[in-house]
Specification:
The structure holds 2 protein chains of 2 kinds. Chain A is α+β, with helices and mostly antiparallel strands. Chain A has 9 helices and 9 strands. In chain A, helix 1 crosses helix 8 and helix 2 (29-41) packs across helix 3. Chain A is elongated, with a radius of gyration of 22 Å. The model of chain A has no long low-confidence stretch (mean pLDDT 90). Chain B has a domain at 37-251 and 544-565. Chain B is built from 21 helices and 11 strands. Chain B has helices at residues 18-21, 24-27, 37-47, 114-123, 146-157, 164-170, 204-228, 237-242, 252-259, 261-279, 288-305, 317-337, 344-348, 356-367, 371-378, 395-405, 451-463, 471-477, 482-490, 511-521, 546-551; strands spanning 51-59, 65-73, 76-84, 103-109, 136-144, 172-181, 244-249, 422-426, 433-437, 525-530, 534-539. Chain B has a 9-stranded mixed β-sheet, with helices on both faces. A two-stranded antiparallel sheet of chain B has the order 8-9. In chain B, helix 16 (395-405) packs antiparallel against helix 17 (451-463). The chains are: A alpha+beta, B alpha+beta.
Chain lengths: 219, 567
């Protein structure tokens, strides 16, 4: 297996765009993206899951976590939400429960790929200590209290990069390119200072190299 | 609870209000200054006595070959590899969609060993599919000016100097067509730069590559002239300084501003605080500061008067020059009247009317009166850009925060089709950022940051929620609002993070934001607008060359003189 060391920026671009293809709302994508990257960084095979679970992720979009609370004891029905999408909300639940009660015990059922919730301690905000216990293959308990969070694996990726399976990365990279918009003569007119003819061919650039009248099609 | 007023320090209280400064048209008036990346790097190189040498120049008479430049900075050296090509016109544009470049460059930490050169040579042409070596800071590309480059070579080969007017009009031998770092293509991430790294200030690595591309443009022109005539002239040192590196920037910089609100706030705050500090300096007739200000006002007015660039929407430079002359007269009048006069009184005066661009030039001239303090401030530019939400906050607190900081966003009627005219996207062709009318981009993800639309939608939703519900609970129901809610909460203590704009609107003109980045951040002079969406300009216009740096000369370089005016 060939190994590639990718930067955090590259990971964010590739993972973020791939997630867009699942239909996830753009406003939910950044936190899901960080979850995937953290899973990859801590050895939970985040990238492979992103590729292999693409259909599951697509089906998961639109589902919502459902919350029932009784003081510091909270139950969350995952309703089939994929762990990549569930983690940000679960961390919020842990944080706001600790803010109210100094500690939290959150039982989570029905999340797709619950094993990925092992990433939770690594993504907790500073000031929140989180532990995860697996009660059964489908059920997880999150225990949280005030304290020092684990070091963020994303921070480590930012400074050191992240070794990944090169073939898998390039596969995801090509997949993520589908979030880009196909080129066309019309599209080429949507930016820059190039001047095009009616066939969409560059006939010059405004500025030093162009002194003629600009065709209406170029404006 | 959310304060209805942001926390203020005595200095911050005197800074421009966000509703004033963050208007795109106002941001576009901010002039290049010694806080701009290109100028601050050159000042740092001069102050710390960096030296630059060309250690290899193996290029043939058709411009094909390689060169290496070495930069000696305190505690570290850098090599800049150049891969030079014979120009071809096919596929050649200043945009990233181009496929032919006259040179590719790579800036690396330490020595470019043969292995590093080999790997870089093989990988760089692949662009997005390529991988930089681990010690690479920047990959860059540039093309020649089609006509000026040839003119310069021909004149030097004839033993003469190029035509000064032509040189002044174009302003560059090569133009930058791409600067990539901070993790792109596997380059070193900016946050990985060590605390004592010589290029630790944001954009300094990019600007060092700019400086070296400009050096290469001189060396290549002189080299090609010598291949025609071994007795060819060398380019006059004064003319070299006038030549900058051409630059063209498009819509990508609007994305950059959206994606870096903390960095934007940090820089604008540093700038505003520095300007405010200098505005408070006393006006003392005949003092070194007085003389320096008068010299700079004269040079700046002449520079703008002599700018031949064809601006479309931006204020004509002669208007700016006239404004600077009015400011000088007002300064003299205030000083003559006596009393405790401060430099800031000039811009606060209501006795005359000058364009905002002239006021902003005056503001950046003030920074030249306290160079050491200003240069020290830029060392604090780097900042943690992480935005953290507060899930424990209540709906009422979030609503109060939104109403305090985003009142401007309610002004847009997002039900009006004119406010949703454009779709922003990236092309699959080299990921070029583009913007088109919605009906012309039917199938695309929306890349715009729609602050007005999202703020209005979130407000409506929050108003329907129990006020004591937590934000964390709200986001369980509306996960699509997470990005904007965390942005709003994470920026709560900052003032200058988001331009007050609706980038989807029919009347939104991108060049204002592009010019903010080009002129104010990067320090680009003569920023000319095209089609409302593209800005051209000159980096390092008038800046010292490597010979100047090595000899510690030519260091007072801003606002260069037109060659024809030289005695």
């Amino acid at each position: 297996m060939s190994i590639l060391n990718i930067s955090l920026r590259e990971a964010r671009v590739t993972v973020g765009r791939t997630l867009w293809l699942t239909g996830i709302p753009l406003g939910a994508a950044p936190s899901a993206r960080e979850t995937v990257i953290a899973c990859e960084a801590v050895g939970l095979a985040g990238f492979r899951r992103l590729r292999d679970d693409f259909d599951l992720l697509t089906e998961s979009v639109g589902r919502r976590l459902a919350l029932r609370s009784d003081g510091a004891d909270v139950v969350v029905d995952g309703t089939g939400v994929h762990a990549f999408f569930a983690v940000p909300g679960l961390l919020d639940v842990a944080a706001l429960t600790v803010a109210r009660h100094a500690h939290a015990r959150v039982r989570v059922d029905g999340v797709t790929r619950p094993d990925l919730l092992a990433v939770l301690p690594h993504l907790a905000q500073d000031g929140l200590r989180v532990d995860v216990q697996f009660l059964s293959p489908e059920s997880v308990e999150i225990v949280a209290e005030r304290g020092a969070a684990d070091a963020s694996p994303v921070d480590a990726v930012a400074t050191q990069g992240m070794p990944v399976d090169a073939d898998l990365y390039w596969e995801l990279y090509r997949l993520s390119d589908r979030a880009l918009t196909p080129d066309s003569p019309l599209s080429r007119n949507h930016t820059g200072r190039s001047v095009f003819n009616e066939n969409g061919e560059v006939i010059g650039e405004l500025g030093e190299d162009w002194h003629g009248e600009v065709p209406a099609s170029a404006k | 609870m959310i304060d209805t007023q942001k926390p203020t320090s005595p200095v911050r209280a005197q800074l421009p209000a966000p509703d004033e400064l963050m208007q795109p048209t106002r941001l576009a008036t901010l002039a290049p200054s010694r806080l701009s990346a290109s100028r601050s790097l050159l000042n740092k190189m001069a102050r710390e006595e960096w030296s630059v040498e060309c250690v290899r120049f193996d290029i043939d008479d058709r411009a094909r070959g390689e060169a290496i430049y070495r930069v000696h900075a305190p505690g570290m050296s850098f090599d800049f590899m150049v891969f030079s090509f014979e120009p071809v016109l096919e596929g050649r544009t200043g945009r990233i969609i181009g496929t032919a470049w006259d040179m590719l460059g790579a800036l690396v930490e330490g020595e470019a060993t043969p292995e590093i050169v080999d790997q870089t040579r093989a990988e760089m042409p692949k662009l997005y599919a390529g991988r930089a070596t681990p010690n690479t800071l920047i990959w860059c590309r540039s093309n020649r000016s089609l006509r000026l480059f040839e003119h310069v070579v021909e004149r030097l080969a004839a033993g003469a100097q190029p035509d000064g007017d032509e040189l002044w009009r174009v302003g560059y031998l090569m133009r930058n067509t791409g600067l990539d770092g901070n993790g792109t293509f596997g380059t070193k991430s900016f946050v990985a730069y060590e605390a004592d790294h010589p290029l630790r200030v944001p954009y300094h690595a990019q600007m060092l590559a700019v400086f070296l591309m400009r050096e290469f443009s001189f060396d290549l022109a002189e080299h090609l002239a010598r291949t025609i005539n071994p007795q060819a002239a060398t380019l006059d040192a004064d003319l070299k300084r006038i030549l900058g590196l051409g630059n063209g920037s498009g819509l990508g910089l609007v994305y950059f501003v959206n994606n870096h609100p903390v960095l934007l706030d940090r820089w604008l705050t540093l700038r505003a605080e520095a300007v405010r500090m200098c505005q408070d300096l006393p006006v003392v007739v005949g003092s070194p500061a007085w003389n320096r200000m008068h010299d700079l006002l004269r040079r700046a007015a002449r520079f703008y008067d002599d700018d031949p660039s064809p601006y479309e929407a931006f204020t004509h430079p002669t208007v700016i020059a006239e404004g600077l002359r009015l400011i000088r007269k007002e300064l003299e009048a205030l000083a003559a009247a006596g009393g405790d006069v401060r430099y800031g009184d000039v811009v606060a005066s209501d006795r005359y009317d000058v364009c905002q661009e002239a006021i902003e030039v005056f503001n950046v001239l003030l920074l030249e009166l306290r160079p050491d303090e200003v240069d020290a401030a830029i060392e604090h530019f780097a900042v943690d850009e992480t935005l953290r939400g507060r899930p424990e906050a209540t709906v009422r607190e979030l609503l109060d925060l939104i109403r305090r900081d985003y009142g401007w966003a309610y002004a847009y009627d997002m039900a009006d089709p004119r406010q949703c005219r454009y779709r922003w996207y990236k092309s699959e062709t080299a990921e070029e950022p583009r913007r088109g009318p919605v009906e012309e981009v039917p199938v695309s993800h929306e890349w715009a940051l729609d602050i007005p639309g999202e703020v209005q939608r979130i407000t409506r939703r929050l108003e329907a929620e129990p006020t004591d519900r937590t934000v964390g609970e709200y986001l369980l129901d509306y996960p699509e609002d997470r990005r904007m809610v965390e942005r709003i909460q994470g920026l709560a203590e900052l003032s200058y993070h988001s331009p007050h704009m609706n980038m989807l609107a029919e009347d939104f003109i991108p060049v204002h934001i592009i010019r903010l980045m080009n002129a104010a951040f990067h320090g680009i002079d003569k920023t000319v607008d095209n089609f409302g969406r593209f800005v051209m300009g000159l980096l390092l216009h008038g800046a010292p060359t490597r010979a100047d740096l090595n000899q510690r000369s030519g260091l007072d370089w801003i606002y260069p003189e037109r060659p024809a005016e030289r005695a």
